[in-house]
């Protein structure tokens, strides 16, 4: 390597080390700022408790007091008791067991949907920002087209189309109907179809702004490969906005699933989702309204906790609020 090349490379390596050190410092500061946001911390703890209880109830039989699908016509519409902490429904099924099952299903929908949305949104947004003008125009046209569909209508149509097809490779959610994909997978794919557009626009805008920064131009001048620039500089600087968007997207996916369950397009019985529990609770609203109270409160609690956590993450990661 010539002396000229060494003179160029050495300052860049020093700047790169300083950059990554500063990045680690900023993430540590963001974590400290998040811990000082009491509402976000409490929301995170509540979400962790709900997730832990739901997972344990699903995978550890000793934690679950009753089978969610077991009927007991001698204990119909009972009020909360030691044997049934949340009471029973019109078929004598334990509401605590059904609530844990429904909550876990909704959390799977919310987290699974965001995983698919991030995968599609980051890929499309990054491709649009880094590719040529023609590719950017085509990808953004596709994004606008997907964004133009009414959310609920598109989800319902896609769910019916996907669930009505034969998908032997994916597997069956019902052993009696081979080749039909599970309701969980179908719902995740349907909600993701209308949710990735926001993330793709966000990533594209962030990367278009970042790639004109001085340190990106310096990296290009020293011969850094495009993939190294994206991996080491552009993606880390886009990650904070993506994390906030994903946190706000989880309650939207949960509410969309609850809406599907409420109109009868959720998980088929005897399984339960929060929307289907709300729907079944309407039948006994005059005689035993507690069946409606628990799932409604859980939907509201999940949405509030994720929203407060998203607000805390946005305040912690927003560079304009750093002192």
Structure description:
With about 325 residues, the chain is mostly helical. The chain has one domain (about 15-320): MetI-like (MetI-like fold), CATH 1.10.3720.10. Helices cover about 70% and strands about 0% of the residues. The chain has 10 helices and no strands. The chain has helices at about 5-35, 40-60, 95-130, 135-150, 150-165, 185-210, 215-220, 225-260, 275-280, 290-315. Helix 2 (about 40-60) packs across helix 3 (about 95-130). It is elongated.
Low-pLDDT stretches are: 1-22, 166-180
Strand content: under 5%
Distance linking N and C termini? 43 Å
The CATH topology name reads MetI-like fold
Describe the structure in brief.
With 323 residues, the chain is an all-alpha fold.
Defining traits:
single chain; 323 residues; mainly alpha; MetI-like fold; 10 helices; disordered N terminus
Give the secondary structure arrangement, pairings included.
Layout: H1 3-35, H2 38-59, H3 95-130, H4 133-148, H5 151-163, H6 183-210, H7 214-221, H8 226-262, H9 274-282, H10 290-317
Helix pairs in contact: 1-10, 2-3, 2-10, 3-4, 3-6, 3-8, 3-10, 4-6, 5-6, 6-8, 8-9, 8-10, 9-10
């Amino acid at each position: 390597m010539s002396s000229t090349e060494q003179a160029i490379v050495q300052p860049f390596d020093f700047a790169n080390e300083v950059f990554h050190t500063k990045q680690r410092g900023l993430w540590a500061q963001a974590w400290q700022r998040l811990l000082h946001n009491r509402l976000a911390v409490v929301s995170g703890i509540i979400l962790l408790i709900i997730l832990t209880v739901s997972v344990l109830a699903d995978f550890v039989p000793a934690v679950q007091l009753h089978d969610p699908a077991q009927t007991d016509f001698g204990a119909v519409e009972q009020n909360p008791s030691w044997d049934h902490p949340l009471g029973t429904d019109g078929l004598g099924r334990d509401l605590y067991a059904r609530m844990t099952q429904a909550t876990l299903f909704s959390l799977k929908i919310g987290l699974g949907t965001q995983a698919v949305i991030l995968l599609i949104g980051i890929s499309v947004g990054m491709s649009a920002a880094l590719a040529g003008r023609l590719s950017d125009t085509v990808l953004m046209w596709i994004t606008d087209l997907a964004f133009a569909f009414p959310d609920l209508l598109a989800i319902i149509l896609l769910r019916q189309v996907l669930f009505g097809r034969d998908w032997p490779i994916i597997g069956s959610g019902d052993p009696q109907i081979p080749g039909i994909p599970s309701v969980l997978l179908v719902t995740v794919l349907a909600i993701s179809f209308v949710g990735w557009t926001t993330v793709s626009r966000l990533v594209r805008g962030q990367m278009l702004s970042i790639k004109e920064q001085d340190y990106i131009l310096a990296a290009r001048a020293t011969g850094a490969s495009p993939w190294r620039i994206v991996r080491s500089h552009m993606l880390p600087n886009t990650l904070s906005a993506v994390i906030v968007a994903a946190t706000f997207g989880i309650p939207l996916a949960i509410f969309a699933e609850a809406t599907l369950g409420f109109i009868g397009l959720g998980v088929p019985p005897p399984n339960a989702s929060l929307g289907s529990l709300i729907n079944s609770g309407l039948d006994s609203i005059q005689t035993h309204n507690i069946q409606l109270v628990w799932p409604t409160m859980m939907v509201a609690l999940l949405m509030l906790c994720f929203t407060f956590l998203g607000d805390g993450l946005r305040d912690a990661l927003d560079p304009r609020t750093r002192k």
